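Sample intake sheet
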Amino acid sequence: MLTKWCRAFQGLPEEVPHARHFVASLLADRGPVNDAVLVVSELATNALRHTVSGSDGGRFFVIVGLGDDVVRIEVVDQGGELVPHLCHATDREEGGRGLRLIAAVAKNWGYTVWRDGRSVWAELARASA
């Protein structure tokens, strides 16, 4: 069973550091803080860049789930035209590596699409407390 926390954020780039702080403060002494902060940073940034959440008046939600052996980081956005997918980025491209970074640190990751939005999540192994 996961214990969950959720917080809403405005769809503005300056909210991404607040999302990182939210996750870091919840996981201090409880989980893989650095990996969780990386995950929420990438997912929140993607929500702003690639979904309606980054539009005027948009918003996104961060959900942190804490279980005995897993930490689940989830970002719920307002949806967009494309689904999350791994990109092949060249050395010259500035973006396109976020989901690859997440895949490298996570046990698993995925997404769920709804009519009015979607959820993108990653599960991280939690070291024994």
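Comment: The first strand starts at residue 3 and ends at 10. The longest helix spans residues 33-50.
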